[in-house]
């Protein structure tokens, strides 16, 4: 195969994305995004699912596991010190005081169901985790909602990319940047 073709570059990339380190990095990325990092791994997961659906799903599981661990940390801190994280959260992009207050009110009035209303809303889940901890949501119920919210946000994009990647394997391998431009 021509070393300058995209297919050749993708085939050289696959052994590296098949090692354990990318999974560890994605686990840490999920944890960081759930706690302090504001860059979501969705585009990276979609690209991976386009190239190799198995690796895309493995990476998604790692990201969700890391995010759940981070969500549980935020939840536990908020339970131990209600209101203590608010000042930290409002310093993170794109979180504002109004967002924190409105989310707290939504969780107080609507309970945990309000945490599942729109996984694509502009409110980072860490704000919901904080408010759920402050308001005394039972930990097992919070864990269930956190898993559902995280999976429902990531799964549609990864499933779509995996399906496209499988059905249109050659096209995807040759034009991945073009296809991702439509997603991002």
Number of helices: 9
Shape: elongated
The amount of helix comes to over 70%
Query: Proportion of β residues?
Result: under 5%
| Elements, N to C (H/E) | HHHHHHHHH
Largest sheet: none
Helix/strand/pairing class, anyone? Answer: mainly alpha
Low-confidence stretches: none
- The count of domains is 1
Let me know the number of strands. 0
- On the 0 to 100 scale, the average pLDDT is 84
End-to-end Cα distance: 30 Å
Cα Rg? 18 Å
Summary tags:
elongated, 184 residues, 75% helix, 9 helices, mainly alpha
Task: Please tell me about this protein's structure.
The chain is an all-alpha fold. The protein has one domain. About 75% of the residues lie in helices and about 0% in strands. It contains nine helices and no strands. Helix 2 packs parallel to helix 4 and helix 3 crosses helix 8 (about 140-165).
